[in-house]
């Protein structure tokens, strides 16, 4: 008696969207990508590329228009002293100033996280993987 093998699990091919040439997206630059109904903001932070859901959940402000800066933290690791941290990695919403860590999508001071997307560089092109 033979037992049937379960069908091989098929993996979905990820969609690739070319965002820009690396020369066109230097450190500190950003670009907004529309794919279907989704808007995705892609940022170059010190030569590394990050992509986030492109609208602030508060009032849908376009996050690609926000500024990149650092933020002040105060916790046990800083011995409860205020300290400037994450310089150039904090995205400030242009609508009401909510702050997000570009690398993780996490909101600073809130239990909220934006969806993040993988970004790769292939042959001098910044590619968004969906």
Task: Sum up the structure in keywords.
mainly beta, Rieske Iron-sulfur Protein, six-stranded antiparallel sheet, 45% strand, 9 strands, single chain, three-stranded antiparallel sheet, globular, 130 residues
Overview of the molecule:
With 130 residues, this protein is mostly beta strands. The protein has one domain (16-129): Rieske Iron-sulfur Protein, CATH 2.102.10.10. Helix content is 0%, strand content 45%. It is built from no helices and 9 strands. The strands form 2 sheets. Strands 1-9-8-4-3-2 form a 6-stranded antiparallel sheet, with no helix packed on it. A 3-stranded antiparallel sheet has the order 5-6-7, with no helix packed on it. A hairpin with a 2-residue loop joins strand 3 (38-45) and strand 4 (48-53). It is globular and about 60 Å long. The model has no long low-confidence stretch (mean pLDDT 92).
């Amino acid at each position: 008696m033979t037992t049937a093998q379960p069908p091989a699990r098929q993996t979905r091919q990820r969609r690739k969207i070319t965002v820009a040439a690396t020369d066109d997206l230097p450190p500190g630059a950003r670009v907004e990508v529309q794919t279907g109904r989704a808007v995705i903001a892609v940022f170059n932070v010190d030569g590394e590329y990050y992509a986030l859901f492109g609208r602030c959940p508060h009032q849908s402000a376009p996050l690609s228009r926000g500024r990149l800066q650092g933020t002040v933290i105060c916790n046990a690791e800083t011995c409860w002293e205020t300290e400037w941290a994450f310089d150039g990695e904090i995205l400030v919403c242009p609508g009401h100033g909510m702050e997000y860590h570009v690398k993780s999508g996490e909101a600073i001071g809130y239990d909220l996280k934006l969806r993040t997307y993988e970004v790769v560089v292939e042959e001098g092109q910044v590619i968004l993987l969906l």
